[in-house]
Fold Calcineurin B homologous protein 3.
Amino acid sequence: TSEQIEHLHRRFKQLSRDQLTIRKENFDSIPDLEFNPIRGKIVHAFFDKRNLRPESDGLADEINFEDFLTIMSYFRPIEMNMDEEQLDRFRKEKLKFLFHMYDSDHDGKITLQEYRNVVEELLSGNPHLEKESARSIADGAMMEAASICVGQMGPDQVYEGITFEDFLKMWQGIDIETKMHVRFLNMETIAHCY
């Protein structure tokens, strides 16, 4: 709505300190992101050109308000008047954004190492969990992904990584539409930072 766009524009101006663009360092002033274990991946996603324009690749140094709106659109809630086709497209857009967060080398696959990195980051705040345990969790999840996506594999077969089609299969039946949201848009939060 126009009201939401105005709210986002005010938030953009706060983050950019009234500049025309935002850089990665502007996200340092967001308290809700400060302790998020995958903070780096979230910020990186805002500058990942794959999330800004189809058929783009690489990272942007800065984003303007239009780019900011594009990224924020991935987090918008479901509209009640969406038909099945719109809901399916909406869901795929959200999952594509999430897939890009995991696929850090932009090769179209989430490899075991990329998945290990994410799991290690997510669990980094737990002082009772050693790196080897995090690795085991990631390895187990990747084996489960392989079984869901490929089925029974032979002893000499190697699962190269999760493609976007595999990723869609894995998220089937999980309600991503209501779980993927951004809390740091709260205007009051940043007022305490200056």
The first strand starts at residue 21 and ends at 23.
